Structures are given as structure tokens and as C-alpha cells.
Amino acid sequence: MKCPAPLFDGINYLERTPKPINEQNLKKDYEFAHAFIYSYRGSDATFNAYRREIERLLHWSWLIAGKSLSELNRVDMENYIEFCQKPPQDWIGNKQVNRFVDVAGERVVNPAWRPFVVTQSKAAHRKGEKLDPKHYQLSQKALQAIFAVCSSFFNYLIQEGYTEKNPILQIRQKNKFIRKQQTTQVIRRLSELQWAYVIETAEQLAIAVPERHERTLFMINALYGMYLRISELAASPRWEPQMGHFKQDADGNWWFTTVGKGNKERMISVSDAMLKALSRYRRFLGLSNFPALGETTPLLSNTRSGRALGGVRFLRSEVQFCFDETIERLKKDGFQDDAEQLMAATVHWLRHTGISDDVKHRPREHVRDDAGHGSGAITDKYIDVELRARHRSAKNKAIKPEWLDDLIPEKSEN
Question: To pair with 217 at 20 to 30 A between CA atoms, which of 13, 116, 267, 281?
Fold first, then answer.
């Protein structure tokens, strides 16, 4: 089965007016889908997620089911979800690529693009394991996204009078697709030893190559110390982190303002240690210890141009370099298991680690607000006992009461 072509370009190229579709019965589908996706252009992550799900749905509806969106019913949507769980191999790519590329000043379809992409763990990638479309597997998180985005889309179509029903809501047994999690999900975080090695490695790199890694050290401090997401450090059309976003209140306390998921602004309390890290970074940049009120200096800037750094890919690569150096140090010092576990770590683990460490001694509500969690239930996930400590406490628990051995004499061997 031939792979379909992409339908929607990126935020900066998706015009307000949709491109014309020749097939009359599909024209309305495309126009409503375009308007729905375009409405989420305020957030890169949300836009990309909604574009991905709606694009897949349109391709399946038109090419596989042979129907327009207004004709889809419950059975169709169940078939669609099963299709997403095992799509044709021609629809599966082995890496993320842009949907469209620039050719002679025009945006044209990228032939390497695929609606689905097979992924692998970082550890597997480091070991040189090859990606194979046959190994594609839709995660539970991805399944949940299909239900959430498609349901929201059909509600939009109902409001616009294009359809009268939401076939996603008509699926009665969603649990045959989405597994219920009975146990608390394990938070992916660094161990105490791994974090100690990471921050020490970052400090060593900053001393050895300050023109590059003083910035890396500050980033790692901010990701851990203020629970920032990497996207909250990168400049974007909707938000550019600046030094002036560190502010002191009337009581002399420092706060950092950021814009996170859902385009929500929040204030984060700045610890003395984080303030010390900020001062060090500013001195390296030739600035005063603390930002002036309203200072517009970019928080992270290009070392050559001085412009604000945009795009999370570069920032991730800088932190990953520190991770890689840490892995080698752990191996050299004999901590092979910790080194191998760190191979799977992502930048987001620093946020998780900071929250997990702080929730042990800070009020849950304070951590919740600094982290930007929508509810205390999310923060509660970080209130856990380390797995090693949990297993250690269970290691010697008995099955049979010890005093029972004293009452029942051992059988003699014949």
C-alpha cells in the first residue's frame, strides 16, 4: 500500500486559508481539519500532536475506509484504532523528518515522510541496534492521544454542524484498547549517585571549556533546581526567556517567571543555590551578579551572535553531551550498572529528579505550584520510595512466623 503524502505544513507555513482539495466530498473534511489544527498554533507541542493525529485520521478515512469524516461511526473508529496499532509497513518510517522541504523557494512534499515512525530506546540506539518497521508498536500514551485528540476534533465538528455524533464517545469498551494501570507509574529519574556525577561533570566541563559549557552548567542547574522543561528554556514565537524574568519581591525573595505547557504562565521560587548558579553564569557573560528590573538580555544566547537560542534540539544535544561524559566517568570509576541506566536518561529526567528530591522535604503544594502541575495528584506521583530502598525493605520479610519453627519440631531424616 503506497504511503500517503503529508497534508499540513508547520506552524510558520500553515496559512490561514487552506489549500484547495480537488475532490468535492473531501474538501469539507480538509477545511474543517485545517481550521481545527490552525487554532492550536499558539503552542508548538500541542499543534504538532493535533496535526499528527488529525492527519492520520484523514488519511485512513479517505484511503482505507473510503469515507468522509461525517460518515464515520463507532465501528469505523474501532477499526481505525486497530489500524494505528498495526499500520502497513509502507506507512512507517525509521526517523522523524519534516513533512515539507524548501526546493527553489517553494515548499514541496518530503518523500521520506511517513505517518508513523518506529522508535527505540536511547540505550538501544547507543548499542547500534537497527530500526525496523516490523518492530513498530503503538504505546499506551499514543493510544490515549488518539482517543483524546479525535474526540476533541469530533466535538468541534458537532459544534460546527458538520456531523451529529462523536463516534469516539460511542466506543463503550475503551479498556480493550487502553490498559488500566493498577500500580503507581515509576517516575523516570536519576539516582542520587547519577545526579551527583552529572552535576560534577557539568562543573568540570564548565572549567575546561567555559565558552561552551558555562551555559550547559546553568541549563542543568535550571532544569533540576527549578523543574524546568527544556521547552521553557528555549526561545519561541510566543515566549523568549530573559534575564529580567528573574525578579526580586519586596521581601527580598527571588522568583522566575516562565510560560509552560498549555501556554500557562507561572512563577517559580528561586533557591539560594539556584541564585548562586545564576550569578556565576552572569559573571561569565560579563554581567552583574543579579538581573536588573526589566532586563531583556536573553537567558540563553548564541555564543557568537548573542541572540536568544531557539529550538530545543540544540539544547538537548548540549545536555546529552554532559550525560555522555558522565557515563564514561561512571564506567571509569566502576559504576557500570549506573552508567548503563544513565544511557536511557533524557533531559526531562532532570525535571523529574528535581521534583522527586524536593517533594521529600518541601510541602507538596509548594512543589506542585513551582512545577506547574495541574493538580496535587500529579505531584503525588513523585512521592515514592526509591525502588532499591523499597526492595531492600522487603528482602528479609518472612512468610512463616519464626516462632512456628520452635513449636513444630523438624522431621528426622530416615
Answer: 267
